[in-house]
Structure formats: structure tokens, C-alpha cells
Amino acid sequence: MAFRDHLAGGHEHHEQVSCVHDFFDLSCELAHELLIFNDVKEAKGHRAALNVLSRDRLCARLDMTPGEVVDLLGRGMNARSKPVLVAPEQAPVLESGQDEPDLQLLPIPWHYREDRGRYMSASIVIAEWDGRRNVSFHRQFLRDANHVVARLVPRHLRTMVDEARARGESVNIAIVNGCDPVVLLAAAMSFDEPIDEMTVAAALHEVVYDSPLEVVQLPNGIAVPADAEYAMTATITLEDDDEGPYVDITGTLDVVRQEPVFEIHTVHHRKDPIFHALIPAESEHKSLMGLPRAPTVKNAVAQVCECHDVHMTDGGCGWLAAVVSITAKNEGDGRRAIKAALDGHRSMKMVTIVDADIDVGDAERVEWAMMTRWQPDTDTVILSGQRGSSLDPTRSEDGTTSKVGFDATLPPNCDRARFTSVR
Description:
The protein is an alpha+beta fold. It has ten helices and 23 strands. The chain has two domains: 281 residues, Electron Transport, Fmn-binding Protein, Chain A (Pnp Oxidase, Chain A, Roll), CATH 2.30.110; 127 residues, 3-Layer(aba) Sandwich (UbiD C-terminal domain-like). The longest helix is centred in the middle third of the chain and has 13 residues.
């Protein structure tokens, strides 16, 4: 399936709108339902879609429960497959394009009025340098017709760019928008060691669709998903420029930094292309960031006890807090699960451990478990001087924070009758 195949049932808006604030304002009016804008003032011949991949919509499209999606991603993190290269004439993404690009003619949105300007927030970057390939998300501020300024957090692409710049070299990339969800989820995964996320995406594609992931080579040699909506050839230059302010996943305003400038050389797209115009801090953003973190947490907890499910909470922005269900078989399993979960996702600030009879995605039931199975003075773990997330506005100037874990599980071999809800 292609990105556009996931738009069925969306609200189609036929009146002309501007990508400057109108996308966001109308989405708020319609409670952030799946929207397709068919007439964009700044981008004739282009459409835009947003609120496509919230957790519920994604699970419905994949015909899986949230727990099954977490397990799918967990298997995918340990699986690799090779994408299949197809000829250019077989790739929808190469059906049309601009040889002299003007990104201002694309439906790149300016959502929040507090943002610096128009941003690509759902586009992935595929980079190749020194025999390595990296696929990852990076927000990109539209600076002018053929340049964006991208926020590169200190992960694998940033390391690649720093190494290239030390040699005085730029990095060859593709910017891709409107990919199938399995590609986006693979791109959002985080690994301790450099991994070619395209091979993870290919493995997930084979499991979900029972077919190989097809890619096509762009003129600069970078291979991209053949059925994506847009693919741009570009380089990460040696230049930095101001990036931000930007409303990030927490809904708070990120600061201005000096970040790398990308120069775009060509823009390729499908006929009647549909731009993925994700709204930061809304459910789609939380889903794409949070779901790929859940299997890392589950894998870490499974090393110390039996782990059933993980939910990255909406209140925690899909990033900073989780609920984890376990079966405690030994004294101290709840505390061990807290430590393992925080180690499994180091940006996380709070974790709640519950028993297997509690639905981790039901906030009311989780709170019920807290009130009936948790004692604040004995079942709370507080850790000081921990590495914090750059998304946490409360962390110290040195990047540290404190973290908390709540053990709302019952002791092994206790009489569960008095702790069990009859309704």
C-alpha cells in the first residue's frame, strides 16, 4: 500500500485554503479528523493530507491492536531485508517533477503561528556517506526556494554530518514525503548502533503486506520508496543557519539554534501528489514518535521479568511517559521493571508498572490500579541526576533531570481477590 491508500474515509475539503495557518485552523475546528485539502492556494496541482496516522487509525488500517503493532515493530527491529530496486518507469514517485525546484510552490505548511515559518515535519531524510545509509526524521524549515534548515539531534545522521564536515565534505541525501506507514515507523526507530533503517522497513513491509518494498534510484544515486508522494535530491551543505522557534511534540516552543542547511536540487513527485502535512504535538506526531519506542521498552523489561504490553501515553506526549504491564513472579519485579523501562528509552521521565489485567491504554484503569495497588512511600522509585530529553523543558542546563517510576503491581502469590475489580 502507498501513503494515499491510507486516506480512505477522510474528510475532503474542496474550498481553497492556504497552507499558512489554514490547515491547522481547520483541523482544530474538525477535532483533528483525517483531512485532505484539494485546493491549496500556494501549490496548484498539489493536495495535502494531515491527521493520517494517529494510533487508532494506524491500527485500524493495519487490522492490528496497539499491542500487536508494538510486537510487530519489536520483531522488525531485529529483522532485516533487502528492498527491491525497480526501473524509473515503474516508480510512481518519478511521474512528475521540477528540475529547477521551488519549494515555495509545494504545500509545505505553517501550522502554529509561533513557528519560524513553513516546515516539513513528516518528511524523512535518506542519507548515504562513507558506505553508510541512514533513514530518519528531521524537521525542516523552508528558508527559500531551494534550501531548508533542518534540526539534527545528536544521533546517527548528526554524527555522519559531523564526520563529513571534518573532511570538508557535504552529504548526499534524499528528502521523501508521503511514505507508507511501515517506512515511516522504521525511520522513527532508534538504535544504539548505526543501522540501515531501509532494511528494517523492507522487513516490516514483507510481514505487513506480504510483498517486497520497492525502491527506485534518484538521479543522485539515493534509493527511495518507489510509491512515495515526493522525493527530492539534495545535499547537506557545510553551512549552518537559524532554525526555530518551533512547537515540538510537547506543545512547547523549542528554541532557535544554528543547524545544517540542506540544498535541494530536484523535486520528483507522483501525478496529483498529496503532501503529508503532519501537525506537531497532535496525535499523529505522538503515534509516529511513540510507537517505535514501545518495543525498545518492552524488550528491555522482558530481560528482567515477563512483560505483556507497553503504551506510550498521550499525556507524556508519546515520548516522556509509559505504562507497562507485567506478571510479577518474584519480589522486586516491579522495581526491576521500572529501571529496565527507563534504560530502554532514556528520554523517558516517568513509567508506571501495572499487572496484566490492566489495559495499559486505558488511563482510567491505570489510575484505578494506582489507587488500589500502589503505596506512595514503598512503591515509588525516584532517580536523580539522570540524562534528560531535550524535549523536556524542566531539565537542567547540564541536560540532566530526575525520573520517577510507580510500581502498581501486586506482590507475587498474594490473595488477589481483594484487589480485583468485579466490574
